[in-house]
Amino acid sequence: MPRNEYQSELAELREDVVAMSETVAERLEMGLTALETNDESLARTVIEGDNEINQLYLDLEQQCTDLIALQQPVAGDLRFIAASFKIITDLERIADLATNLGEYAEAADDDVFPSVDIQGLGEMTLEMLADSMAAYAEEDRELCYAVNDRDDELDEECEIASDTVVRELIEGEEMADEEIETFMEDVSRLLLTIRDLERVGDHAVNIAARALYMIDNNDELIY
Amino acid sequence: MARTQYDERLTTLRTDVVLLAETVLERYEDAVVAMATGDTRRADQLVRQDDEINSRYLALEQECTTLIARRQPVAGDLRLITASFKILTDLERIADLAVNLASRTEYGAAEIHDTIDIRTLGMTAGEMVASAVNAYETETSDACRAVAETDTGLDEDCETANRRLIRELIAERTTDSHDEREPAATVDRTTRALLTVRDIERVGDHAVNIAARALYMIDSDAKLLY
Known about the structure:
The structure holds two protein chains of two kinds.
Chain A: H1 3-37, H2 40-48, H3 50-71, H4 75-107, H5 118-138, H6 141-171, H7 177-216
Chain B: H1 3-37, H2 40-48, H3 50-71, H4 75-103, H5 118-138, H6 141-172, H7 181-219
């Protein structure tokens, strides 16, 4: 393969990974909306769309290994491909978490604790995902660190949210036995939602960490 | 690189991944025991030792990319290397989760929460990691599927543990003895327990990831990958 073609394949890989992240972000947003509006058909769309993401993921993985095997890239190019290879795993996992949100939306009856701002947490994760991908696409090291800092904030917000749930559980009114079952379902789902959003943040940090390693060979954020 | 040298490096890669897995698993199991017995001394050690895992992890990752770039492997060899490359990430994450458990350990607290059995949950997840790594090492596809099945049980047990914690909080409402400090302590204890259950469940998920990669490597079967 001539040099130019190799360069354009690298550029194509970058574009494809970014495109995958946009699809994943869209799914995440849909999952959040489905939760907010109790929209079961939107929830279904997210759940059923997961196959498409999975296929995309395996195709991109193939693209990465083909490039490494055929071009024997070194230094920067190799780090870029290896980063892409790892980043797509994180994207695929974020899509799985979006699917989880869809499943919670399908099962949910109503908001148990409106004081917990799920949508606010969701916004944060969407921004972190967008920033981490911009860091990768534009090789922006400052953004890598920014995503990492933002995750501390998200973790804190998630912890506050869980604490609120736990506190309200103790402080609420006494309940009849027949009420408890559905209430418990709703509470479990809320805690799982918080947990899943926190995980989305972790994946965004993984992406940022890989981007930084690719840009500067700096492994500071990888662990 | 001559063919025999290359074959040797492939074998070494696999052995090294398995050795890293053994170290990670040992740390994780120690973290579970430290937590269950309130052994803060061991827990502190575990937190400090994480750097060693991280550097072994990056060195092995480097070996994977070098092997792909130099030898342009195809079919089975390529699948072994890419599987190793992905499995390493899961191992490193399990080590991070072990550190989470260790840093949540409290001195002398025999159990983090008396309504749930952290040791049993934790050990189940640990055994799953061991089986998944073993499936990778010995290329046994049935073992890969078994790990995925065990995970369904672990998820259920974790969910049951969570419900028990929630139910206990609801039950607290009926008790009148509301000392000022009591709710704060309960919130703290329950939150720690919920986080611990979550981390153990994640260890199980990583075990499934490893099994899924192993299955993909052995049979080109992507069924467990997502």
